[in-house]
Design brief:
The structure is a single chain. The protein is mainly beta and 251 residues long. The chain has one domain: Beta Barrel (Lipocalin). The chain is built from no helices and 16 strands. The strands form 2 sheets. Strands 1-2-3-4-5-14-15-16 form an 8-stranded antiparallel β-barrel. An 8-stranded antiparallel beta barrel has the order 6-7-8-9-10-11-12-13. It is globular.
Length: 251
């Protein structure tokens, strides 16, 4: 997979990453994400009402074979290893190029931010479940940090996913935060801008939206976990509304 996107926004991390996971083989493009001076992310099942409890998330750790398509139409294939890291997952791809990322799960969705190279330091990801009243209920993670954070955002104006929100969240260390969030359409994607100078790009799938944070170095993926354990994904990066696809089948 190859991503050549440009930076759309500036990221300011409020949670430092002290040390990494010590990764090797990988394969995607940049998950340098760190949500706002707080973050968030949570996924939800396409057909699930936003206010009902999310179904249990299947275990995704393991080794996979991957096939995919780049935004320019070229194909690629390779391997993916998913490693459980406390509340989050580490993603390592090898498809000619190495990539490393961090992922969070919610019901049968997985949101991942990734970067070129043997580590995804600086990348973060948020996965939101879109409630029936328009509120966002999220879970988020940073590369190199085993604990996840949470965030809830209440829309103050706008319609659909687009609009302005009051966000409140909790960092992995338990500290709470508040921020203003603006969501704007960006072609087939969405741009997320928080009041603490954090910027991200998201992919919506039904009542779920996966947001990658970290700047031009980071890409992001939104996977749906199929009943047979296959991960069916859409991925992209900063500076373009074009997306690629990827399917990962457990070995």
């Amino acid at each position: 997979m190859k991503l050549h996107f440009q930076l759309v926004g500036t990221i300011v991390l409020s949670v430092g990453i002290a040390g990494g996971w010590g990764c090797k083989s990988i394969r995607k493009t940049s998950p340098d994400a760190t949500p706002l001076s707080s973050s968030q992310t949570e996924k939800s099942e396409a057909k699930t009402d936003g206010n009902t409890p999310a179904p249990a998330t299947p275990e995704i750790a393991g080794k996979y074979n991957v096939v995919g398509g780049n935004p320019n139409g070229t194909a690629y294939k390779g391997s993916l290893e998913i490693i459980a890291r406390g509340d989050v997952y580490q993603f390592r791809w090898d498809a000619g190029t190495q990539y490393d990322g961090v992922g969070v799960t919610n019901a049968n969705f997985v949101a991942v931010a990734f970067a070129n190279g043997a580590d995804g330091k600086g990348c973060g990801v948020i996965d939101y479940r879109i409630k029936s009243d328009g509120a966002l209920d999220g879970k988020w993670g940073y590369w190199g940090v085993n604990e996840a954070g949470t965030e809830k955002a209440t829309r103050t104006n706008g319609s659909g996913l687009t609009g302005e929100y009051d966000a409140t969240g909790k960092n992995p260390d338990g500290k709470e935060y508040k921020a203003k969030l603006t969501v704007e359409p960006a072609g087939n994607l969405y741009r997320f801008v928080w009041s603490n100078n954090t910027d991200g790009v998201g992919i919506r799938q039904a009542d779920n939206v996966a947001v990658g944070i970290g700047g031009a170095r980071c890409g992001f993926v939104a996977y749906e976990i199929r009943s047979d354990g296959t991960l069916d994904g859409i991925w992209g990066g900063y500076g373009s509304d074009k997306t690629g696809t990827e399917k990962a089948t457990k070995q």
